[in-house]
Write a structure and sequence with these properties.
The chain is α/β, with parallel strands linked by helices. It has a domain of 58 residues: Orthogonal Bundle (DNA polymerase, domain 1), CATH 1.10.150. It has ten helices and seven strands. Strands 1-2-3-4-5-6-7 form a seven-stranded mixed sheet. Helix 4 packs across helix 5. The longest helix has 27 residues. It is globular and about 55 Å long. It starts with a strand and ends in an 11-residue tail after the last helix.
Length: 284
């Protein structure tokens, strides 16, 4: 069983890195990618303490890179097996993380102006040490202050992309991210491309541009993809030679998504991995 998209407390998941791996092993996974938002800290910690990795579990190093189109649409690119020491990619991830701080401060200011009780200190108190700062941590602070009851409620009412309180942060374009991942020897996957409940989605032409830029794969089997989305992805994969991926986008207790609920077949994983030269999978 192979799951190529998960999160830990290194970004906005609720499982600590080794806790996620323990849960992955319990779920029957044999290969799991660690893909925190704009961060490699989770799998770096694991690699430095291999004796704690569950026996029989293989780790794929990666990250989910935040990007933004010229029209301001948020697009996520999962990068796997890249060289995390590559200076260009490391700077891209660092710049993206750094701009999340003033973005969070602006969102908090907007919420305070509307009468909601939350501060930057509240957010820092609920955010795990070293985690990539994001809206889920603001949601957790609102939960702690009893403004909302859950992350789902926070996003539905206050933190969604069209909310009056939403503020975007700097991010590279999808093409820039794909090229940076490739230059670091990695492979790139377009995450949840037709999950329309999340907001606006790319057009066929825009996905074609990403494929021309070097995109290797596209997520197909996802909790938030319906049959119409499957049909679109099948067509795009065929036309642009994209490898179809299945993955959970696991966030621990923060979401209903379960480890291994969607998987990638072994032959497709091997095809994807064969295109990478930047880093390798690792185990105990």
């Amino acid at each position: 069983m192979i799951d190529l998209h998960t999160h830990t407390t290194a970004s906005d998941g609720t499982d600590k890195p080794f806790e996620m791996l323990k849960n992955a092993k319990s779920a029957g996974l044999t290969i799991v990618a660690m893909t925190d938002h704009d961060s490699t800290e989770g799998w770096r910690e694991v690699r430095s303490n291999r004796d704690q990795i569950p026996v029989g579990l293989t780790i794929v190093p990666g990250a989910e890179v935040s990007t933004r189109t010229q029209l301001g649409m948020s697009v996520h690119i999962v990068g796997l097996l890249f060289d995390a020491g590559n200076q260009q990619l490391a700077k891209l991830l660092s710049d993206t993380r750094d701009d999340r701080i003033p973005r969070m401060e602006k969102m908090i200011e907007k919420l305070q102006a509307a009468g909601y009780q939350v501060t930057m200190q509240d957010v820092e108190e609920v955010k795990p040490l070293g985690a990539t700062l994001g809206r889920p941590h603001l949601a957790d602070a609102l939960i702690k202050n009893r403004v909302v009851a859950s992350r789902d409620e926070a996003f539905a009412e206050l933190l969604h992309n069209n909310s009056q309180f939403y503020v975007s942060h700097w991010a590279p374009s999808p093409v820039e991210a794909i090229k940076a991942i490739a230059d670091a020897g990695g492979v790139s996957i377009l995450a949840h491309p037709f999950a329309e409940k999340r907001g606006a989605v790319l057009t066929f032409g825009e996905v074609a541009e990403l494929a021309a830029a070097g995109l290797n794969g596209i997520e197909r089997n996802k909790r938030d993809h319906d049959e119409a989305a499957h049909s679109k992805i099948d067509q795009l994969a065929l036309e642009h030679n994209l490898i179809k991926i299945g993955s959970s986008d696991y966030h621990g207790a923060a979401r209903a998504n379960q480890l291994g609920e969607e998987q990638t077949p072994v032959d497709l994983w091997e095809n994807l991995a064969s295109k990478a030269s930047g880093d390798e999978v690792f185990t105990r």
